[in-house]
Amino acid sequence: MTCFDEALAGYRICCLAHETFLPSGCIIWGESLGWKAGMRMKDNEELEITILMPCLNEAETIEGCVREAIEAIREYGAAGEVLVADNGSDDGSDGIARKAGARVISVAEKGYGHALIAGIQAARGRFVLMGDADGSYDFGELPNFLKKLKSGYDLVMGCRLPKGGGTIEPNAMPWKHRWLGNPVLSGLGRLFFKAPVDDFHCGLRAFRRDAMISLGLKSGGMEFASEMVMKAQLGSLRICQIPVTLRPDKRSGSPHLRSWRDGWRHLRFMLLYSPDWLFVLPGVVLSFMGLAGFLILLPGPFTFRGVTFDLNSLLISSVTMILGYQTLAFALFVKIYAANSGLIPGKRPHLLEWIEGRPVEIGIMAGIVFMLVGIACLVANILAWKDVGFGRLPVQESLRMTIVTVTALTLGIQTIFSGFVIAILGLKR
User: What is the reported pTM?
Assistant: First the structure.
């Protein structure tokens, strides 16, 4: 291992290309932190900061980004490293990054998220600052991020949008990202998860490595950016944001981001992790609308401003109520699965604990109540039919009662089997 003095007094840069204990890379440290020049690093020794960059064919920009990151660590005076997670580059990006002083790992599984997950696992720093390797972010922002992390925050998001104090340089962001995609998706993220973040998709962000690993991040694509914020909020991590500057992409080729495809993947992922918005809210609305119409039309036709609502409207109300009820059951299934699998971090809702105690019994009892109502209506219908010698029945009375019968029996059967589904979801593997 060779060492050479730098102009900055008290610090060393050690190139570890032939180090037995560490893969090729560049580690920067300060002697004031207890490190000695020429000391061999052990596998379990931790640095203060890792600057992590995902990389896929970034030969035009990777060298400048690595050198900028190294300079940022040196100026801050921290023990740190620059780590590049190469995702299968075929343009020599990995070799350029090594030559510039970065430690490089190869990530075989394709995807932005896969590269970053592997990089976070491989990072040696207690704190990690991640940023794209296309020259669009200024790694000199490192001190601002570390200041927040050291004050107790677990995740510090950069904000490029003027709303959060950020700056977007001319030609740095397409109009549909700046005025449509980013504001809409970030707004939905704040609405769904109450996260104190104005820019969910900023690529420049810093975090405590152990806190991020504890979240069990899994997304392999661009939606990884959303997953990190969502799970951090659901896991009650401390989150804040600081303004950053977005510079124009310095590559000559097209960006890896596919606006509409990746935008949909972000939205879909948000919905999957917010069952209250995906299932509970629609279920409550459908159930309330259906029940209201059902109760109003049950006694007979209802006329409002010259418009009469009758059997057809009663049938639609019945179906709407059943759909709402089933949607709420789906919400319960999803919440139980997510809680048991650890998919969504945080405390288990008390309602789930109560229901999971005796789900089959609760489902059977509630289902029997619905079915008794349905059976009673069915018997009444049969007796009315008998009174006319099993001949033609009055349409208004008979069909109205038949709709009530079918609705009650359907809800009863759904409730009973939902109890068994909940019990299956609660089985231990």
Answer: 0.73
Strands 26-30 and 11-15: antiparallel
**Angle of helix 62-76 relative to helix 142-150, nearest 10 degrees?**
50
Question: How crowded is the C-beta side of 120, counted as CA atoms within 13 Å?
Answer: 26
List the chain domain ranges: 2-272, 275-425
State the architecture of 2-272 in CATH terms.
Answer: Alpha-Beta Complex (3.90)
Asked if residue 160 lies in contact with residue 199, where contact means CB atoms within 8 angstroms, the answer is: yes
Per-residue pLDDT tens for 395-412?
778 888 899 999 999 999
Reported as a pLDDT band with limits 50, 70 and 90, residue 427 is low
**Nearest one of 243, 245, 214, 208 to 231, comparing CA atoms:** 214
Distance, CA of 274 to CA of 267 (rounded, Å): 11
Which residues have CB under 8 Å from 381's CB, separation 6+? 398, 401, 402, 405
